[in-house]
Amino acid sequence: MNHEIEAAHAHFTRKLELEADAADVYEDLMNGADIVVIDARKPDFYAKGHIPGAINVPHRTMNAETTASLAREKLYITYCDGPGCNASTRAAIHLSSLGFRVKEMPGGIDWWVRVDGYPLAIGDEPGTLRPANAIECAC
Question: Measured between alpha carbons, how far is 11 from 19 in angstroms, rounded to an integer?
Fold first, then answer.
């Protein structure tokens, strides 16, 4: 392999170590992966619609105290509004500086809904992402 090809391979491999697209996050949530999705936006935006199961930890409030209840062994996926918003990047910086394993979801909530058509949870609670064919027992 020449240097240019090796550099490209290393770059794109490293990129995927630090990023997860909406389809990856959706699949992980549906399969029960040991991840925690963090909405890094302000609470009012979270309440208007967020990834089901995501918790709201606005990037501007992240510090040792506000993240003390987060489990260190988990992998955290941060997201924000999408292109033109850097809250997820800032959240990933804060979390990694505090010693957490973290990936960023480029495209944010915009790509989650507009591009991939995944559902949103509304309100102050995380909600859940359930398979479309899940049957709920009434017993």
Answer: 12
Quote the tokens at residue 63: 């510090």
Going from N- to C-terminal start, the domains of the chain cover 20-115
The span from the CA of 7 to the CA of 2, in Å, is 9
Residue with tokens 């995501």: 54
- Per-residue model confidence as pLDDT tens digits over 40-64: 999 999 999 999 999 999 999 999 9
pTM score of the predicted model: 0.87
Edge-to-edge strand list for the sheet holding 75-79: 55-56, 35-39, 75-79, 101-104
Cα separation, 105 vs 79, whole angstroms: 5
Superfamily of domain 20-115: Rhodanese-like domain (3.40.250.10)
Alpha helical stretches, state H, the chain:
3-18, 22-30, 43-48, 87-97, 108-110
pLDDT digits (tens, 9 = 90+) for 87-133: 999 999 999 999 999 999 999 999 999 999 999 999 999 998 765 44
